[in-house]
Amino acid sequence: MADISIKQEHQLPLQQAKDAAQKVADKMASEFAMTTQWDGDVLSFKRSGVAGTLALREKEAQIDITLDFLFKAFASTLEEKVARNMRKFFAETA
Questions:
Q1: Domains along the chain with CATH numbers
Q2: pLDDT, one tens digit for every residue, the chain (94 residues)
Q3: Helix and strand counts by DSSP (H, E) for the chain
């Protein structure tokens, strides 16, 4: 079960949604030293202590993040940053 789960509605065609998701991933990768990889419409990301996916669906993107014990203390801060980036990049690309 994910420690953080955020759904973001969008009105983007699939390629634009992928571009927005990649921007979210790039931001997370630079801030938190994560690696990312696409598998179809699902972007997986991980680093020591943190792993998750960003799944694209028609009119919705959902990010699920699982945190190791040591990172759970930072869950609210991480959730706030990710939610802000999701809103920014999915609205910006529209």
A1: 4-89 (3.30.310.80)
A2: 889 999 999 999 988 999 888 888 888 888 888 899 999 999 999 999 999 999 999 899 999 999 999 899 999 998 998 899 899 888 864 4
A3: 2, 5
